[in-house]
UniProtKB/TrEMBL annotation, chains A, B:
Cofactor(s) listed in the protein's UniProt record: Mn(2+); Mg(2+)
Residues covered by the Isopropylmalate dehydrogenase-like domain: 5-370
Family as reported in the entry's similarity comment: Belongs to the isocitrate and isopropylmalate dehydrogenases family.
GO cellular component terms listed in the entry, alphabetical order: cytosol
Domain of life: Eukaryota
UniProt keyword Transport, yes or no: no
Protein name: 3-isopropylmalate dehydrogenase
BP GO annotations: L-leucine biosynthetic process
NCBIfam families, sorted: leuB
Keywords: Amino-acid biosynthesis, Branched-chain amino acid biosynthesis, Leucine biosynthesis, Magnesium, Manganese, Metal-binding, NAD, Oxidoreductase
InterPro entries, per database record: IsoCit/isopropylmalate_DH_CS (IPR019818), IsoPropMal-DH-like_dom (IPR024084), Isopropylmalate_DH (IPR004429)
Subunit structure: Homodimer.
Lineage start: Eukaryota, Fungi, Dikarya, Basidiomycota, Agaricomycotina
Catalytic activity: (2R,3S)-3-isopropylmalate + NAD(+) = 4-methyl-2-oxopentanoate + CO2 + NADH
C-alpha cells in the first residue's frame, strides 16, 4: 500500500482533545483500506512548545512538517501566552505558513445540515442555503509586508505596515479559486473582494483577477465587490455571495471569520492552507504541502473537560484526504458520516450534539458515533 | 438671532431627493426659533460636479465648505462615473475629508424603534437592543499612507499601500470616542478594535488607546478586540459590542457597514464626520468643521422616483444641530419625531414606511409627516 506521512500538531487548549477524535477517524479510514496506509506522528507546536523549548515552532517540528505529506493541526494559544508574553504562539503559526509557502487558505462556510438552522444568528430564511468557500491569500499583504514599530527611528511616534501584492501572488491564488470553482458541478461563481476605490494593491488585485479568469478560465463567471459592501452582504443577504469568495489576506481574515458564525457554531468548520499548486493553469489541483485545522481557537475556558466539538477537526481531516492525498472517496465518507450524526436527533434521550450546539454529548462520544458510521 | 451658515451638497442619484426633505426639516426648525437662523446654500459635489466642472470637488464648493458652520451632504456616485471613468466622485469625498481635517467619523447603529425588528436579518432576540456607535478614524491609515501603483518603478509588477498611524492621530480620535462615551448617562463602554497580534500600527493603536483612556478618562471602562473577532461578534452577538466601537479607518469602513445592516435598512442611518475637536482632554465637544450624511449610497436604481427613505438624511441633520451648532433640543425633537413616524403603523391604510421598509409611502410624504410632528 501507498504510505502517507501525516504530521499531527495537537497544540494547546482543546486542541489535543479535538485532534484526538480526528486521528481516530483517520486511523479508521487507514485500517479499512488496503490501498494506502496513514502514518501519523505528533509534534509540539504553539504554547506547549514554548513551554518545553522556548519557541512556538521548534526546528524539529518545522522539519517534520516539511517532510510530511500533510499536516493536521488542533489549535494554539491561551492566556498563559497572552498579549504581554515575551514569546507568543501566533508568530509560530505565521512562520509555519510562510516557510511552507501555504498561500491558499480555504474555508467553507455552510450549514452541514438544515437541522442546524436554529443555531444561526441569522433568520432561518436568510441562513438556509448559505454555501460559501472563502479562498484567502495567506502569505502576502499587510501580514508580511515591511513594517515599522513605534519607538524605532526615524520617527519614533509613528508605526506602519505595508499591504503589498505582486502580479504573480494574485495570479496563483486566483488559479486556486478557479480550480475550486471548477471542481463543483456546475462550477461555482467567483466573487473577488477588494477595496479598489481606495487602494493601489486592490487595483492590482482587481486587474490580475480579471485578466487571469478571463483568459485562463473563460468558462467561469465572476464579479467584484468592495470589502465594505461584502461585509454587509454577508449579514443581510449572504446567499448573494454563494460560491467562491476570493480575497487578500486581511480582508479574508475578517470576512472568513464573519461568515463562519452563520452556521451557528465555530466548532463545525474546517480549513485548509495549501502550498505549491497550481503554478500554471490546470484543473488538476495538487498541493505540495497542506496544513488542515478547525477554524475555532484553543478555547481555554472549556479545555480538559471533554466537551469541545471535534467536528471542525474531523472535517479538516476530510479536506486533508481530499486535497493533499487525493483520496476523494474517504473524504466524502467522513463528510457523510458527520452529516448523518448531526441529523440523528436523539441518543439515549439526549440530542447528539456537543455543548456549543445546545447538546450534552462529549467530544469522545461524537468521535465514537462518526467512527461507527464509517 | 445667531446666524449659522450651512452648506448643502445634494450630490447624485437619490441624494437631492433625500436632502430636500432634510432641508425642509432644518427650515422648519429655523423658523420655529427666534434664537438662531439657519442659512442654507447648495453647492455642486460629486458626479454632477464632474459633469459641469470636470472635477468632483470644485474650488468654489471646497471654499464654501471651509467657511460654513456645517455641511449637509446627500450621496455621490453612479454608473456614469464608474470604475472605468477617468474622473471619479470618490476622490472628491476623500479630498474633502482630508482638506477639512474630518478625522472623526461617527456612525450610530441602532434600531430607531422596536417596530423595525422584523426588518433585521438577525433573529429578533439578537437584534433587539443593539446600540452601537462606531467612531472611525477617517483621515489616516491605509487611505492616506504612501502608495505605489502597479506599472510604476522600481518594481512594475507590485503595488502597495501603507497603513500608518502616529501617536497624536490615535490620541485625538480616542478623545472623541471618550467624549461620546461620556455624553451618555451612564457613560458608554468603549471597545477598541485592532489587529495587534499582527500589525505594528495596531500595536501603536492599542498602546495609545490604553494610555489615553487610562490617564485622561479613568472613569470609563474599555476593552480591546481583534478585528476578525469583532466581525464575528457583530453577527453572532452584537450587544456584546454595545457602546462605542473605536477603530482605525479601514477596519471602521468594514465594521460600520457591517453593523449598519442590523437595523434592517441602510436608509435609516445617519453619520457625522468631524474636525478639530478635541485636541486636549475636555468633555466640551465642539468640532470646528462637520460633514453630515446618510450612510447609504446614491442608489441610482431608484433615483428620481421619489421613493427613497429620507430618514437617514434627516437624522444626519439632527446630528448636525447637535455637534456643529450645539443645538441639542431641536436635535432631540427631530429624533423624537422620526421615532413617532416610524411607530405610526397606518396612514390611509398604508404603512407609514418607504419601500426599503416594505411600505408604499414616498420620500416627500415621510418628510411631510416628520415636519408635521415638529
Ligand atoms: C492568529 C492570527 C495571526 C491568525 C490570522 O490573523 O491569520 C488567525 O486569525 C487566523 O485567521 O488564522
Ligand atoms: C466611497 C469610499 C471611498 C468611502 C470609504 O471607504 O471611506 C465609503 O465607503 C465610506 O465609508 O464613506
Amino acid at each position: 500500500p501507498k504510505i502517507f506521512r501525516i504530521v499531527v500538531l495537537p497544540g494547546d487548549g482543546i486542541g489535543p482533545e479535538v485532534v484526538n477524535e480526528a486521528v481516530r477517524v483517520l486511523e479508521t479510514i487507514s485500517k479499512a483500506s488496503t490501498d494506502f496506509d496513514l502514518k501519523l506522528e505528533s509534534h509540539e507546536f504553539g504554547g506547549c512548545a514554548i513551554d518545553s523549548t522556548g519557541e512556538p515552532l521548534p526546528a524539529s517540528t518545522l522539519k517534520a512538517c516539511q517532510e510530511a505529506d500533510a499536516i493536521l493541526m488542533g489549535s494554539i494559544g491561551g492566556p498563559k501566552w497572552g498579549v504581554n508574553a515575551k514569546v507568543r504562539p501566533e508568530p509560530g503559526l505565521l512562520a509555519l505558513r510562510k516557510t511552507l509557502g501555504l498561500y491558499a487558505n480555504i474555508r467553507p462556510a455552510n450549514l452541514a445540515s438544515d437541522s442546524l438552522l436554529s443555531y444561526s444568528p441569522l433568520r432561518p430564511e436568510i441562513a438556509q442555503g448559505v454555501d460559501m468557500i472563502v479562498v484567502r491569500e495567506l502569505i502576502g499583504g499587510l501580514y508580511f509586508g515591511a513594517r515599522k514599530e513605534q519607538g524605532t527611528d526615524p520617527d519614533v511616534d509613528t508605526a506602519w505596515d505595508t499591504m503589498i501584492y505582486s502580479v504573480a501572488e494574485v495570479q496563483r491564488i486566483t488559479r486556486v479559486a478557479a480550480q475550486i470553482a471548477l471542481a463543483a458541478n456546475p462550477p461555482l461563481e467567483i466573487h473577488s473582494i477588494d477595496k479598489a476605490n481606495v487602494l493601489a494593491s486592490s487595483r492590482l488585485w482587481r486587474k490580475v483577477v480579471t485578466e487571469t479568469l478571463t483568459t485562463e478560465y473563460p468558462q467561469l463567471t465572476f464579479d467584484h465587490h468592495l470589502v465594505d459592501s461584502a461585509a454587509m452582504f454577508i449579514v443581510a443577504n449572504p446567499k448573494k455571495l454563494n460560491g467562491v469568495i476570493l480575497t487578500e489576506n486581511l480582508f479574508g481574515d475578517i470576512l472568513s471569520d464573519q461568515s463562519s458564525v452563520i452556521p451557528g457554531s465555530l466548532g463545525l468548520l474546517p480549513s485548509a492552507s495549501l502550498a505549491g499548486a497550481p503554478s500554471a493553469p490546470t484543473i488538476d489541483f495538487k498541493p505540495t504541502s497542506g496544513l488542515y485545522e478547525p477554524i475555532h481557537g484553543s478555547a481555554p475556558d472549556i479545555a480538559g473537560q471533554g466537551i469541545a466539538n471535534p467536528i471542525g477537526t474531523i472535517l479538516s481531516a476530510a479536506m486533508l484526504l481530499r486535497y493533499s492525498l487525493g483520496l476523494e472517496k474517504p473524504a466524502k465518507a467522513i463528510e457523510k458520516a458527520v452529516r448523518k450524526v448531526l441529523d440523528t436527533p436523539e441518543i439515549g434521550g439526549l440530542g447528539l450534539r456537543t455543548a456549543d450546539l445546545g447538546g450534552k454529548v462529549g467530544t469522545k462520544e461524537i468521535g465514537d458515533c462518526i467512527v461507527e458510521e464509517l
